Amino acid sequence: MKSFKKMVALSSVLLSVFVLAACGNQKSAKNYTPKELNVQFVPSSNATTMEAKAKPLEKLLKKQLGIPVHVSVSTDYNTIVEAMGSKKVDVGFLPPDAYTLSHKEYNTKVLLQALRFNYIEPNDVFGTHLQNHYYAQILVRKNSGIKSLKDLKGKKIAVQDTTSAAGWVYPVVALKEHGININKDGIQTVQVKGHDQAVLSVYNKDTDAAFVFQGARNLVKKDAPDIMSKVVPIYTTDGIPNDTITVRGDMSAKWQKKIAAAFKAIIKTKQGHEIMSTVYAHQGYKDSKDSDFNQLRKYEKIAESLNK
Predict the structure, then answer these.
(1) Could you tell me whether strands 231-241 and 133-141 are parallel, antiparallel, or unpaired per DSSP bridges?
(2) pLDDT of residue 25
(3) Roughly what angle, to the nearest 10 degrees, separates helices 253-266 and 270-280?
(4) Which controlled-vocabulary keywords does the entry list (predicted)?
(5) Is 198:212 a contact under the CB 8 Å cutoff?
């Protein structure tokens, strides 16, 4: 009997230790304090080129935050989401679609939304008005004979990952609203990495059309000076929330504020502005919250329904 009582007592002690440890882990899980910061971009153009342009951000962030910073570029939308979920990436420059996915799967926290200059057509120049949204377009070759969305039936289209708002979701929903199913109607989709590659695929006649963000043709002007006259938009979608600066779900509230403040301060400096405007055309940042992406979630559900 004495042995049994000792075992019960010991079990109670061990259980108490386990509960306290679990509570401690739960608490720390919501208060992650980084000793170094891993920041990752999603490629909107050639990943190697982007990383070279973004690397100087490391020193600027280190100066603001006081800890080592490592900047890299992911291979695609999905890898950065998984990297944030596995805690390998602390801060992600997530497009809106990647943010909604990461929030759903890993409870990531959106801090900021990018501000960009408005894009003016048909002059193909940027204005001076800052906005927190952008548009997707469907591009074709000017002499292709494709004049409307219905003409895309039976054609080959360059697209991004199916989580991409501009490279998939919004154009696909636009097609559906015009009675066209991307998975039917004889349409062949070709997934490419980067909106620059999508534009060039149309330019080089590898595809008949491309889903890209408005202004993506500017990415290839150096390689294809006549891109504006050879490749033209036939459709512009509804507005899409601008990309985000998002942190892993267990980042402490204190560090969320520090990181947000750091990026706001950096983009106001000459070097910081040059980096962010060159890499992503960011001109500034505004505070953001999860509900800012509810309309996007609606579009994503519509796009997903086409696979059923």
Answers:
(1) antiparallel
(2) 40
(3) 90
(4) Signal
(5) yes
3-state secondary structure of 34: coil
AA identity, residue 78: N
Helix (H, G, I), strand (E, B), or coil: what is residue 68? coil
Architecture of 133-241 per CATH? Answer: 3-Layer(aba) Sandwich (3.40)
- Side-chain-side CA neighbours of 83 within 13 Å: the count stands at 24
- Write the CATH number of the domain with boundaries 37-117+242-293: 3.40.190.10
85, 101 Cβ separation under 8 angstroms: no
Q: Report the pLDDT value the prediction gives residue 91, as an integer from 0 to 100.
A: 98
Look at phi and psi of residue 186 and say left if phi exceeds 0, alpha if psi is from -120 to 50, else beta. Answer: left
Is the torsion defined by CA of 260, 56, 51, 66 positive or negative? Answer: negative
Asked if the model's pLDDT at residue 266 lies above 90, the reply is yes
Comparing 88 with 98, which gets the higher pLDDT?
A: 88
- In the chain the beta strands, taken as DSSP E runs, fall at 37-41, 69-73, 91-93, 109-120, 125-131, 133-141, 156-159, 188-191, 209-213, 231-241, 244-247, 284-287
- Please work out, in degrees rounded to the nearest 5, the angle formed at the alpha carbon of residue 52 by the alpha carbons of 49 and 56: 150
Q: Where are the domains of the chain?
A: 37-117+242-293, 133-241
**2: Cβ–Cβ under 8 A, 6 or more apart, which residues?**
none
Q: Which tokens belong to 307?
A: 């696979």
**Which residues are 209's β-sheet partners?**
140, 157
Helix (H) or strand (E) holding 8: helix 2-29
| Tens digit of each residue's pLDDT (9 = 90 or more) over 98-147 | 899 999 999 999 999 999 999 998 878 889 999 999 999 999 999 999 99
Distance from C-alpha of 111 to C-alpha of 91, rounded to nearest angstrom = 10
Whether 37-117+242-293 and 133-241 share one fold: the answer is yes
